[in-house]
């Protein structure tokens, strides 16, 4: 059986991390990387040097997981909003013998607003997240990925959809 690289992307607040943590518990021989862990800095600064650094960090970690003889599933989630960013990651990976699944989690704008508002109320996100997410919402629709609508579904249901997708 081939190794499986499962890339879960989607807009900030759609539930990528929550679904991936759930999948991680359900999949044996699974490694899990959150893209944000490869670019945690204060203050958060977006520039060419930092963009290059985060791609290098992500691809180093993913290649290490792929090479590990214990790995069967490699989960990766991040706010990848364009096919160009996805390509810049994939072209740096050793994908020989690896099945790649590019999955975008989606939800309605109304549901996203509720989720982000809830996160802001809990102190998980800052107030600017709403505007940033809504301004990038349509970018995810354009990507060449498998779309999974998360409206009116539980975390377990979302995870089971992905498990069925990757395991047939």
UniProtKB/TrEMBL annotation:
Pfam families: AAA_18 (PF13238). InterPro entries: P-loop_NTPase. It comes from the Bacteria. This is AAA family ATPase. It comes from Inconstantimicrobium porci.
